[in-house]
């Protein structure tokens, strides 16, 4: 097998280059059925599950790693370290494998079995924080590990790393401007690290002063909108810009789940619940308009979350 691969190897573009080149430039889909009730207002969503690691987090993960390689903080002898309860970890693990770099992730002890297998599948090492402390417990563990072994780890720190939001400033934001030919009037995004809201939002505001930026977050600390944070009870990310949003929305888990079902059944899009919540918020914004073009992100697909019973509900 090895010999065979080597025999055809000379003329190939290396695997790592090909995988990494697939990050970003995702399709922008019009949600025409969901938006029927708000016509002539139109709603579009960036299909972020098209990224090779399956989520929007491939964008910041790749940018943060490439930036750290460029500025010399991430040398080949170092291990990539960060706290992540999901998609960023998958992105680091995939990109680390593609670039031949080791990855260690601090994750909450109650991380789902499927996530664990995906991360292990890519060859990442896992360090578990207390299952009762959620993603903030994982952040505290990563900080401690980085402090104890600065010689071993490059601590990416996605919550405080400007290369996180810059990935969206130079990628997602520009793509939305191009794909809508500048017609975007509203941008709606959920808050996790806030990178996708802050980076995309800043780019849109810079290019189009009157664009309205709407952020949303779960309405309670114990929620089921995976990838999102309830800011009033969380460590606020250093990259978050509290001046940026023109409007803020608090969303219930059930609203995200209901819209995830509607997206599956009316648009053929099997989105995660943060994507469901994003489209529900986009629709809420659109209902208040008489004209406009509302853009949101669907951060990932549902395949990692299908253990949740609501997927079998006959009606949204
Ligand atoms: N949805 C999902 C499914 C995510 O994994 C994340 C990232 N944690 C987000 C939304 C929020 O993205 P950001 O970190 O850019 O705020």
Automatic annotation (TrEMBL):
PROSITE patterns: CYS_SYNTHASE. Its EC number is 2.5.1.47. Keywords: Pyridoxal phosphate, Transferase. Its cofactor is pyridoxal 5'-phosphate. One of its GO terms (biological process) is cysteine biosynthetic process from serine. It holds the Pfam family PALP. One of its GO terms (molecular function) is cysteine synthase activity. InterPro entries: Cys_Synth/Cystath_Beta-Synth, P-phosphate_BS, TrpB-like_PALP, TrpB-like_PALP_sf. It is an enzyme of class 2 (transferase). Residues 22-300 form the Tryptophan synthase beta chain-like PALP domain. PANTHER family: CYSTATHIONINE BETA-SYNTHASE. Belongs to the cysteine synthase/cystathionine beta-synthase family. This is Cysteine synthase B. It comes from Candidatus Moanibacter tarae. The gene is cysM.
């Amino acid at each position: 097998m090895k010999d065979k691969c080597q025999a055809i190897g000379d003329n190939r573009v290396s695997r790592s280059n090909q995988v990494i080149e697939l990050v970003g430039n995702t399709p922008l889909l019009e949600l025409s059925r969901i938006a029927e009730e708000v016509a002539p207002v139109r709603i579009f969503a960036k299909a972020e599950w098209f990224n090779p690691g399956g989520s929007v987090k491939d964008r910041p993960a790749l940018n943060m790693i490439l930036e750290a390689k460029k500025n010399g903080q991430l040398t080949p002898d170092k291990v990539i370290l960060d706290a992540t309860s999901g998609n960023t970890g998958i992105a680091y693990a995939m990109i680390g494998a593609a670039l031949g770099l080791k990855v260690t992730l601090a994750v909450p002890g109650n991380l789902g079995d499927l996530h664990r297998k995906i991360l292990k599948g890519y060859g990442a090492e896992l360090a578990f924080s207390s299952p009762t402390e959620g993603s903030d417990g994982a952040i505290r563990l990563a900080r401690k590990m980085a402090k104890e072994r600065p010689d071993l780890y490059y601590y990416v720190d996605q919550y405080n790393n400007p290369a996180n939001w810059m990935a969206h400033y130079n990628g997602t934001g520009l793509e939305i401007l191009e794909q809508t030919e500048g017609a975007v009037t509203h941008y709606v995004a959920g808050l996790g690290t806030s990178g996708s809201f802050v980076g995309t939002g800043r780019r849109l505001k810079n290019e189009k002063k009157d664009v309205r930026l709407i952020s949303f977050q779960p309405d309670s600390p114990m929620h089921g909108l995976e990838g999102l944070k309830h800011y009033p009870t969380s460590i606020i990310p250093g990259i978050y810009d509290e001046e940026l949003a023109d409007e803020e929305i608090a969303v219930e888990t059930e609203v995200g789940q209901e819209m995830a079902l509607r997206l599956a059944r009316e648009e053929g899009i099997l989105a995660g619940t943060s994507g469901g919540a994003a489209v529900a918020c986009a629709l809420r914004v659109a209902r208040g308009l008489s004209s406009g073009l509302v853009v949101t992100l669907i951060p990932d697909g549902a395949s990692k979350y299908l253990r949740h019973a609501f997927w079998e509900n006959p009606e949204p």
